[in-house]
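G., the chain you wanted modeled:
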Amino acid sequence: MLRWQGYGIPPALVMDSERDQTNQTAYLNPSVDRLYCAIDLAGPEPMGFPRRKSDQTLRVLVLGASSVQGYPHPSELAFPRHLSLILKKQLPDREVEVRNAGIIGLASTPIVDLTSQAFSVKPDILVLYSGHNEFYGVGGVATNAPLSPLGIALGKSRLIRCLSGISTGRDANSSKGGPDLIETLPASYQIPAGSPLISRADSVFRTNIRRIINLCRQHKIPLVICTPVSNLRDQSPLVLEADMPILRKFEKPIQELTSQKQWKEL
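Predicted structure as tokens:
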């Protein structure tokens, strides 16, 4: 009955275009993010593309989080769009399509599920840019939005979504990846250097990367794994383990501002 009434968020990454009665045009489902988190995130970019591609088409699908989606800028300015322009110049005899499947705030666990669905796009190459959200992202190890492969599978059930109260629409007051999302997801704002969360995040990330690699091997699709950029220069830890008198005088104000969530002052 739930299926007949059309209840629930479509769980598929790829959807048929309602405007194309021949079902020859598809698009990336922008509501698939609601399967991973009750908070409305943003992404993927819902650009239409033909389900059938010619032999001259090079179709690239990029997977990741906000760095892929483009936040805080529009998806038109994200690096998948730049990649498309570069490839078109380098391959003038090919029809290049670069599809942006980035979703704000995802850790690697839900990206494994997206990868399992990505092959319905019929990509020639998958590009993975992930790793920034393994602590505080959706499915991270220190987040208020934990997620497991079993939880994702159950979340695709219309009955489970009905019982959990997940609706079909988007919340008009949702954060769209804004400050509310940043304040809501972290379960703890302090992770000491010796915390077991660090080794756990490393283990989960490695496991998920291996799963993505194996999925691509099974489908014989080349995978490009990118190293996320990181700029730690001039960023001292909030919790100081060593005796550093110069930085000690800043520790208390930093902790007070952090506990009060005064991000601008911090």
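Residues 142 and 188 are 6 Å apart (CA to CA).

Shout if anything looks off.
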